[in-house]
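Sample 1 of the test manifest.
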Amino acid sequence: MIRMSTRHILLGLLATGPSHGYDLKRRHDERFPQARPLAYGQVYTTLQRLVRDGLAEVDGTDSDGGPERTTYRATDEGTRELARWAGEIAPPAPFVANEIFAKVVVAILSGGDPDGYLSAQRAAHMGRMRELTAVKAAKGADLATVLSADYALNHLDADLRWMNTTAARLTTLTAEVDAT
Amino acid sequence: MSRPVPLLTAGGLTKAHGRTTALRGASVELHTGEILAVTGASGSGKSTLLHCLAGIVRPDAGSVTYDGRRLEGLPEKRLSELRRTEFGVVFQFGQLIPELTVLDNVALPLLLAGTDRAGARARAGQWLERFGVRGQEDLRPGELSGGQAQRAALARALVTGPRVVFADEPTGALDSLAGEQVMTALIHTARESGTAVLLITHDAQVAAYADREVRLRDGAVAALGVKA
């Protein structure tokens, strides 16, 4: 699941023009298909906070034949904040506390079967990579889906490469852990 | 329900190149229409396995059975005919013939099989179009980008309607986007035509296009991935 700054994502969606909460939720879920769908409550709470902080304001109401809905738009300050966030470097994740790494070390320490664990974990990673590749390679897959699948595939691939190298190193690694 | 009979089976293959043993009892099955990835580190025996399965080299021990026929018992002439009509092969560097135009390269397997020149060129053109190599029929292979050349090589491998395509690191020399285009073209075409693909790769992202994975380690099968 992807965790992102919901307020900035909503500001980004508002950058295309005024919109109401329901529409923002729908567009979010379409644009970020691999992310957790936004709850309506979360959309409205976030919009209220954006208004409170001067980053968005009420544009008007829109009934469109149904119940009346409040539409929101980004303020100039909101647009500046969005540009600042979009250009901000995300800190490279440390990744050192990875669960797979921990399990391999524990398996070595406890006289377990790190090689067997790595094989099984590798098969699970490959299974997920096959699913994501099928989604991405399907005819008519849109750009948001392809980019999202690519992102996940590259991270899983990085794990896999580490697992392959570790499996090859295991003999040495076991000797080092045993010696300490 | 009984399992269907595999289209291609290798049992206990052993093969040495001089003093280096490349395969040590490798066994693998490929079913009709299946896309199987063979992965493993450099020197694990992947390419030698492909060469044995495709009848390009004969194993020192073990057997290869294709559609009920044992390859090791076939005379070279029959084996060569089988490779020409039932198998298609793509290597890392497409190995198109540099002196021929792209269209004639793709038409070549049909000409060798006895198709008339006009018919062979027409069909070759259709296959090039299918692989997105349009407007480049009259160029020489050296004038194509790496991705275009590989897609032309795939068109040449599939033009005779083979039942099995052997692809040895088909994206190994390409950047990731060109590699993706080659893999997507190969997979979609194979699925549409029911062609089985044996895909050799060291790249997990390429292997993920397959239905199943066989991993080689020191010339033998290390693990069988379950179909996702």
